[in-house]
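Entry 12.
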Amino acid sequence: MRFRYCPDCGALLSGRVLGDEGEVPWCDACGKPWFDMFPVAVISLVHNEKGEVLLLRQNYISTEFHNLVSGYVTPGEDAESCAVREIFEETGQEVEQLELVLTNWFARKEMMMIGFFARVRSGELRLSSEVDAAAWHKPEEILSLVSSRPGSTSRILCERFLSRAGVSERETAQES
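Predicted 3D structure (tokens):
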């Protein structure tokens, strides 16, 4: 979101050059900049002690592809806490180990995605109302189930997980 008016006082913003940032929206009345805002979300590739990957079906997101666990970071929450919370809320799984893997600009939705690998000890799945179905999958299966769109954070996380696990493209193609 690009501000035209100051969210604090309502004054029309002007432009002001601010160091290396270049020209930014500026409130003369408040004496401060208003940088563009965008949503921030976490996305986690959840895997278990057997090396299986948990993929979700969430029809409100896609009826074509499976999804990884994701959700929006709320004010005052750090990305790691958000990832742990979302995994528990959506699947009932408790995170044993969390690793930051990437940040990725999701241009189609104009949002920042923060990607994690999350290891859990697989237990009973307790799905939230926003998850239509979920299942554990062999690593070789996951690329055929997630989005293949260029820049897809899900796709990038899956590719990095497979690379780390030593699963080749040939093995994933044989599963398809």
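Annotation: The chain has three helices and nine strands. The beta strands are 14-17, 23-27, 32-33, 40-47, 53-57, 69-72, 95-106, 111-120, 133-137.
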